[in-house]
Amino acid sequence: MELYELAGYLGRCGADVVAVGAAVAALDFAAKKLLKGRLSAKCVVFLPFLLGVALYFAYGALFIGDTAQNAALFVKSGFSCGSFATAARVILSQFFTKGTLSDRQTLRTECVKQLLAPYKALTDEEAAGIASLAETDELRAKELIRSLCEDAPDPAAEIVLGALRAV
Predict the structure, then answer these.
(1) What is the rounded distance in angstroms from the CA atom of residue 81 to the CA atom of residue 120?
(2) Which of 84, 86, 79, 125 is nearest to 106 (CA)?
(3) Helical residues (DSSP H) of the chain, grouped into ranges
(4) Is 10:88 a contact under the CB 8 Å cutoff?
(5) What value does the mean pLDDT take over residues 141-152?
(6) Residue 156 near residue 44 (C-beta atoms within 8 A)
(7) How far apart (Å, rounded) are the C-alpha atoms in residues 63 and 85?
């Protein structure tokens, strides 16, 4: 991923999502280290999104107010924070491990593989197929996720598609 692509991604997220998403990424990392082996693989996938919603609600209550009226906005922004944290984890893991993410499609493919890992170990081709289909037809991408990962619940497909929208 080029530096200008990363800057463009951060610009699309917004300062609030980047700030809360960074906190989510840090808390997610700490929780996974502290609770290693105690959390199921499926719970680990949803953790950044749950943390994102919780932290964005706290942020919204402090800085925006009127939580009852803005609850839907807070949940949507919280999912964006979870997506940002997931993408950040994938990007950072590429800096600290061998290999590189050369482009946006590779990043999207890696996100799909990591988010669906608890349900099935996808091949690069399967994950790339989901990632590219999600750009043009999310309904068919959701059907593809369901067909490839039979144990995956509908919220898992929604989380994958939400993360891909942010990347």
Answers:
(1) 25
(2) 125
(3) 3-13, 15-34, 41-63, 71-96, 104-116, 124-136, 138-148, 154-166
(4) no
(5) 83
(6) no
(7) 21
Residue 87 identity? A
Residue type, 46: F
Q: What is the per-residue pLDDT across 46-73, written as a single tens digit (0 to 9) for each?
A: 888 899 999 999 998 888 888 888 888 8
- Single-letter amino acid code for the residue at 159: I
Residue 72 CB contacts under 8 Å (≥ 6 apart), including other chains = none
- Tokens at 4, concatenated: 């200008």
pLDDT at 47: 87
Report CA-CA distances (Å) from 155 to 33, 115, 159. 25, 12, 6
CA 151 and chain centroid, separation = 19
Q: Which amino acid is at 18?
A: V
